[in-house]
Amino acid sequence: MKHHATDVHTLAAAHALGALDDTERKDFEAHLRRCEACRREAAGFEATTARLAAAVAQAPPAAAKARVMAAVDGVRQLPPRIPTPRGTPVLGGILRRRAVPLALAACAAAVALGAVAVWQTQNGRDLEQRARQARQQLDAVSAVLAAPDALTVHGKAANGAHTTVVSSERQNKAVFTAANLPAPAAGKTYQLWLAHDGTMRPAGLIDHDGTVILTGDPADAGAVGLTLEPAGGSPRPTTDPLLLMKLPA
User: Fold this and answer.
1) Crossing angle of the two packed helices 36-56 and 124-145, in degrees rounded to 10
2) Is the pTM higher than 0.90?
3) Residue 53: φ, ψ to 5°
4) How buried is 136 (Cβ within 10 angstroms: 0-12 exposed, 13-18 middle, 19+ buried)?
């Protein structure tokens, strides 16, 4: 992706996604050494990217190791002892000795993969759905952050949270990121809003540090709001806004 030199402050998201070419990456990393705000923003985007990627990962079942170790006892540890004919190169023995641990490793891996496959089959539908949703969210966020027309604005909420909104007019989407967001009280959640000519319309929920795609139509909105609402959200704000930030234009 290409940016003018004056846009260097907007490259944090693309840097976290690995979307910069070599020249842009070197320039931005040099800029990071002298810009505290961009260092903070880049770290936040990297943490968010890692968190979204981790949501797609599937941990092996706790019983997998025990199954592998139990199966190893039934695996032949050494090849049959065959007398080596006189004059046979020593290389053959070396290759056989090296093949033993490789074969054992392959057997263990096969058993482990089999155990994981059984576990995944039993939980397949739920895992596939969660992984698909996480991938879709990651793809949607990445598309906005790496969009050629992406614009960024920063803010600070009344509760001390650092916020960033990245919007793409071409995609008609906006991404909201929060850092240092205090945990809401029991029974409460943070709700995002899009301001349309003075009317606040629900734009999604966020409970902790992270990044979300704003729901609704940001094209006609003038600002993004953040309030503390009852769990599940509200059709209209019930508290004073913790943040009311103009959308980048």
Assistant:
1) 150
2) no
3) -65, -40
4) exposed
In degrees, rounded to 5, the angle at the alpha carbon of residue 21 between the alpha carbons of residues 19 and 23 is 140
Residue appearing with tokens 């995002």 = 192
pLDDT value at residue 78 = 56
Could you tell me the sign of the dihedral formed by the alpha carbons of 45, 4, 175, 57, in that order?
negative
Half-sphere exposure of 196 (CA within 13 A, CB side): 11
Q: What is the dihedral of CA 237, 239, 242, 247, to 10 degrees?
A: 20
Query: Is residue 192 within a helix (H) or strand (E), and if so which, with residue range?
Result: strand 188-196
Q: What tokens appear for 153 in the block?
A: 């604005």
* pLDDT for 121: 54
DSSP state of 165: E
CA gap 204, 107 in Å, rounded: 48
One-letter amino acid for residue 244 of the chain: L
Residue 119 makes CB contacts below 8 A (sequence gap 6+) with 60, 61, 63, 64
Highest mean pLDDT among 11-15, 70-74, 186-190, 208-212: 186-190
Residue among 243, 37, 18, 46 at smallest CA distance from 152 = 37
H-only helix segments in 123-159: 124-145
Angle at CA of residue 195, ends 193 and 201, nearest 5°: 50
Backbone angles phi, psi at 217, to 5 degrees: -115, 100
pLDDT of residue 75: 59
Give the pLDDT mean for 54-62: 56
Q: Classify the C-alpha dihedral 173-243-41-185 as positive or negative.
A: negative
pLDDT per residue as tens digits for the range 172-204: 999 998 888 999 999 999 999 999 988 999 999
